[in-house]
Specification:
CATH topology of one domain: Purple Acid Phosphatase, chain A, domain 2
Low-confidence stretches: none
Number of strands: 9
CATH architecture of one domain: 4-Layer Sandwich
Largest sheet: 4 strands, mixed
Strand content: 15-25%
Structural class: alpha/beta
CATH superfamily of one domain: Metallo-dependent phosphatases
Shape: globular
Order of helices and strands: EHEHEHHHHEEHEHEEE
Mean pLDDT: 96
Helix content: 25-40%
Distance between the termini: 34 Å
Radius of gyration: 17 Å
Number of helices: 8
Length: about 240
């Protein structure tokens, strides 16, 4: 029987996502896998995460990828670095990216400058979509801007927003499932168990945050059975 799984922020934890999918979920090519972005940074192996996800694509697993703010920063740093490399020094885009985990990602690629990341990885990040609409939910990385007439036009907010209030008149009557901001595992469970009282389901449990109780897991949510699975960090 096929299943649907929604997986939030992996953040460079290649071993963790591999164990989650292969050992815990035991996914098959009949399953549908939805990833909510932030594949890189924070953790030690951003390149390894993308390599693994690319391999799933190559093997024709049913995978769908949303773009997160960390991919957005990486792409912008790459593009700015290629334009400004003749002037020397670090540009603003690279400094902003380094402040949130770029050094780990660059190290995983074995490079010192964003422009040295192979183009195929940048193309892969750019191919990730801003949102995915299911029958019952809208999947995004961060949230949506319901302060404008059509929130589907604001793709930047889908990657970056930290606060939003769902307007069902603008969301096609659907709840939002997102990652982006790490929340306690007990809160994730509380929202899932009481979905009738919430307009959203936040799934990011901060897989890279291994020093605080209630965090440090990579989660997977089944929207059909309302089951939540959690794999503790295997990379740190």
């Amino acid at each position: 029987m096929s299943q649907r799984w929604i997986i939030p922020d992996i953040h460079g934890c290649a071993q963790t996502v591999k164990v989650l999918l292969e050992n815990m979920l035991k996914v098959t090519k009949h399953d549908q896998l939805y990833f909510l972005g932030d594949y890189i940074d924070r953790g030690p192996d951003g390149k390894g995460v993308i390599d693994y996800l690319m391999q799933l694509q190559k093997e024709e697993y049913n995978v769908h990828f949303i773009k997160g703010n960390h991919e957005d920063m990486c792409v912008k740093a790459f593009e700015a670095d290629k334009k400004k490399k003749l002037f020397g020094g670090k540009h603003t885009e690279q400094k902003e990216w380094e402040a949130v985990g770029a050094k780990e990602t660059l190290k995983s690629f074995g490079v010192k400058h964003p422009r040295e990341i192979p183009q195929m990885y940048i193309d892969w990040m750019n191919a990730c979509v801003p949102y995915i609409e299911l029958e019952e939910y809208i999947l995004v990385h961060a949230g949506m801007n319901f302060n404008i007439a059509d929130p589907f036009e604001d793709t930047k907010s889908m990657m970056w927003t930290r606060k939003f209030k769902v307007d069902y008149n603008k969301s096609h009557g659907k709840k939002i499932i997102h990652g982006h901001i790490p929340v306690d595992y007990s809160f994730i469970n509380l929202v899932i168990e009481n979905t009738q009282n919430h307009d959203f389901i936040a799934l990011d449990n901060g897989v890279f945050v291994t020093d605080k109780p209630g965090l440090g897991n990579l989660t997977a949510f089944n929207p059909d059975t309302k089951q939540i699975m959690a794999q503790s960090n295997m990379d740190f």
